[in-house]
Design brief:
It is a single chain. By secondary structure, the chain is mainly α. It has one domain (3-130). 80% of the residues lie in helices and 6% in strands. It contains six helices and two strands. The chain has helices at 3-29, 36-47, 59-83, 85-90, 92-112, 115-130, and strands spanning 49-52, 55-58. It has a two-stranded antiparallel sheet with strand order 1-2. Helix 1 (3-29) packs antiparallel against helix 3 and helix 5 (92-112) runs antiparallel to helix 6 (115-130). The longest helix is centred in the first third of the chain and has 27 residues, at 3-29. The chain is elongated and about 55 Å long. It starts with a helix and ends with a helix.
Length: 134
């Protein structure tokens, strides 16, 4: 296995890890006791109902659904890269998309989230980019 393939697999694995970690944190967060002030915020989110096509959804459920979907999409993105290593590495466009998505993920994480997803997405972006030079 070449160095560039190793970097590519490492980057794709970081994406899968981000998705799995995010999904598990979202699911486990529902079971952890919350400070009193956060219980009030959560209750308000559950009480705030938004009209959606075909149904009404609480702000809490909307946020949870989007979060779980994001975790699933990160897992799918990473797994599809791992399943198609040769094909993606042979396509400058596909590799460029990987670099762009992970760079955007790192930037969004740095702005709105905490260090773990920022570092994992940054590692993935840098590793994908490094495959172009080794």
């Amino acid at each position: 296995m070449s160095t560039s393939e190793t970097l590519f697999i490492f980057a794709s694995s970081a994406i899968v890890l981000t998705g799995v970690g995010h999904t598990l944190a979202e699911l486990a967060g529902a079971r952890r006791p919350m400070p009193h002030h956060l219980v009030a915020v959560t209750d308000q989110m559950k009480a705030s109902v938004l009209p959606m096509p075909g149904r009404a959804v609480s702000l809490f459920d909307l946020m949870r659904g989007l979060s779980l979907m994001m975790g699933a999409l990160f897992i799918a993105f990473g797994v599809s890269n791992l399943a198609l290593v040769s094909a993606v590495m042979a396509s400058p466009l596909a590799l460029g998309v990987d670099i762009a998505v992970c760079t955007l993920g790192a930037a969004v994480s740095a702005r709105y989230l905490f260090p773990v997803p920022t570092v994992l997405m940054g590692i993935a972006a840098l590793s994908f980019a490094a495959t172009l030079f080794v």
